[in-house]
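User: Could you write out the 3D structure of this protein bound to nicotinamide-adenine-dinucleotide? I've included everything you need below.
Assistant: Certainly. Input first, then the structure.
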Amino acid sequence: MKPVGFIGLGAMGKPMAKNLVKAGYSLVVYDVNPSPVEELVSLGAVKADCSREVAEACETLVTMMPNSPHVEAVLMDPDGVLAGLASGGIIIDMSTIAPNAAKNFAGKAAAQGVTILDAPVTGGVVGAVSGTLTIMVGGPKEALDRVMPLLEAMGKTIVHVGPSGAGQTVKMANQIMVGISYAAVAEAWTIGVKAGADPTLMYEVLSKGAARCFAIERVPDTVLPGSFEPGFMIDLQHKDLCIAMETSKELNIPLNLTSIALQYYEAARCLGFGRKDHSAVIKVLEHITNVDTRAKTS
Ligand code: NAD
């Protein structure tokens, strides 16, 4: 069996690639950053010097890039995947990018007999390490059936959600919910504490009632101790809400709450919190109001 390619060994891609090695796959890997490549090579993977070299060695490969322009470069550059992958090959793009970009890339690849599945993930670095990601897949079902064992080595819930771009569409909806939830926690905790509520007792109540959500579940690990190491970075949340806003313009769908939440993430980046966890969006309101939402020690 030919090896599987993996391009993009960052916070998510590296543990996902390691899970493929653990599951017995032979990997050919590439990243512009040599350090994670070396780590994978020490586990038995073979290093390639560009994306085209990965593609020449494989029939199936995974890409895990920050955003659409990176995916475009990896696929379309003269030394990119499409210059090396033979007809019949499958690219599984697990990055979170704009739905329209995903459709566009899939169309260009189809013209040379290559299938791209858009397969973004949710579950964060923890899910990437434990192999329990939720993966939403857009593209031809037959291609998904062929690569299902590969996805099962990285994720627990794998759902075919429709044609090309549908995976990114569902991921965009996920990120709207997540981005607004963290902004809502920021507002609720800031006004609650300013009005005299205890931040820990607020958590005990809000996490058990109708308001409960993932952003609230994480309050004891983030807001209360003031621990904002990522996790999922403000910069990525900002990127994902920008994708939602661009798509809203294309489709003439107003996204009022998303546009307001985006301003909080914009402000967080302004304050230098771009590389902090997205729960750090609360620091924007703390900065403006001088309210401290950390757990009281007494
Ligand atoms: P990251 O920045 O840590 O990793 C991206 C990797 O791509 C880096 O190692 C970088 O060197 C590499 N890269 C960039 N351009 C390249 C190129 N031209 N050729 C080869 N390699 C290149 O990002 P991440 O946190 O791993 O996220 C990847 C994607 O997954 C993003 O779209 C993100 O939105 C999504 N995602 C992230 C998380 C998370 O918790 N971090 C959770 C779910 C989804």
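The first strand starts at residue 4 and ends at 7.
User: Perfect, thank you.
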